[in-house]
Design a protein that fits this description.
5-stranded parallel β-sheet, about 40% helix, Rossmann fold, alpha/beta
Length: about 400
């Protein structure tokens, strides 16, 4: 099992380990289970109740009946964020008004190997000076050395980036359209935050996050929180499409309508989830890589206007950076000029089919399904998603 790395935010500072003058993540022990969430919850509870020994193990029998009460007053799951596969942030600033514990006094006397740092490199170095007298030197010799895990510093600096009115939450597939959308949004002055979805029928759902790490992670203005790397929307998608299958009088082989309704249900589930998350975290903009030339109705202005109206009801604006892009050749040239690969590396939907020609009657029927079923249930579903996923 890989070590669980944790950092704790409190009063806009960050609690880290300081062992032998080296600043690093807090390395959470394996208490009972292999699952990181459980071990972190135990660690946080013990820390806030001052029941940790110097090796981070409990001074209390965890099988004691008192444990459940301690746990309920100290650990709040909504304040735990997964940054990378084994790296987590626990945001105590988010829960200071909820807990009955006197958090300010909790940290008056920390364990000897825990320390708060500000996140600014020069301030870290100043606060971590270790002055000591060398006994071999008659007049004394003062020495200052600090070793900082660069991953810790990079993470803290990213976490301290303030939210601005130019932050945008981009629905990212890892493909060329969404990649170029990210590049164009950045050129327009936005800070681009990626979010990726798994509809339950996808292959290689980790590829978009790996694409980000390879192409964007070292560039300023692009962010991909790990908790957004593969958000499951299967339940929302299934519910929307199931209603169509139960109420439609069309035969199953009526391919163009079924396929387009399936895509509409999936994209609607993504929009509902994106809007719920954007509202929860304070984003004023969301975006996607819709392109009219792809021929899908969900990427045409007549449908996108519906999504724009839905987002606007929550004070959110929908941006469509590549909507009018005419062909793949133009897109590839722009990607190459920006220094990015033109090779698509995205997760694939196992249900996906190529866009088919649609009659005006088909279009009216697809729009009618959105307006008569999806739109009326959207408000309730956004509320439910916000409650469950955040």
């Amino acid at each position: 099992m890989q070590r669980i790395q944790l950092i704790i935010k409190f009063k806009n500072q960050f609690l880290c380990e300081n062992i032998h003058n080296e600043i690093d993540f807090i390395h959470v022990p394996n208490y009972f289970e292999q699952e990181p969430f459980s071990n972190i919850s135990i660690f946080i509870t013990l820390l806030l109740h001052r029941l940790l020994d110097k090796d981070y193990y409990s001074k209390l029998d965890l099988k004691d009946m008192e444990w459940n009460h301690l746990f309920e007053t100290a650990f709040f799951p909504e304040s735990l964020f997964q940054i990378e596969e084994n790296t987590f942030l626990y945001d105590m600033d988010q829960l200071r008004e909820q807990t009955i514990l006197p958090l300010e006094s909790t940290f008056d006397k920390l364990l000897e190997n825990l320390i708060f740092i500000s996140g600014e490199e020069n301030q870290i170095l100043k606060s971590m000076k270790d002055n000591y007298e060398n006994e071999e030197t008659p007049y004394g010799f003062h020495h200052s050395v600090t070793f900082i895990n660069p991953d810790v510093l990079t993470l803290i600096q990213k976490l301290k980036v303030p939210r601005t009115d130019k932050d945008v939450l981009l629905m990212y597939s890892g493909g060329k359209d969404s990649t170029l959308s990210a590049i164009r949004l950045k050129k327009m002055g936005y800070h681009v935050h990626f979010i990726h979805f798994d509809n339950g029928y996808m292959r290689d759902t980790n590829k978009p996050f790996l694409t980000y790490q390879k192409s964007f992670s070292n560039l300023e203005g692009y962010y991909f929180p790990y908790q957004f790397s593969s958000i499951n929307v299967k339940d929302e998608f299934d519910a929307l499409f199931k209603h169509w299958k139960q109420t439609s009088k069309k035969e199953p082989e009526h391919g163009s309508i079924d396929s387009e309704i399936q895509c509409l249900s999936c994209r609607s589930a993504m929009y509902l989830t994106t809007i719920a998350i954007a509202q929860h975290y304070g984003y004023k903009y969301i975006a996607e890589g819709a392109r009219m030339s792809q021929k899908f109705l969900i990427e045409q202005p007549v449908m996108l206007e519906q999504f724009k109206v839905l987002a606007s009801q929550y004070g959110i604006e929908l941006l469509l950076p590549v909507l009018t892009l005419e062909n793949d050749e133009i897109e590839i040239n722009e990607l190459l000029k920006a220094g990015f690969s033109a090779k698509s590396w995205e997760s694939k939907c196992l249900l996906g089919k190529a866009a088919q020609e649609k009659t005006s009657k088909d279009i009216d029927e697809i729009l009618s399904y959105y307006n008569t079923y999806i739109k009326p249930v959207s408000k309730q579903k956004i509320y439910e998603i916000k409650f469950h996923k955040n």
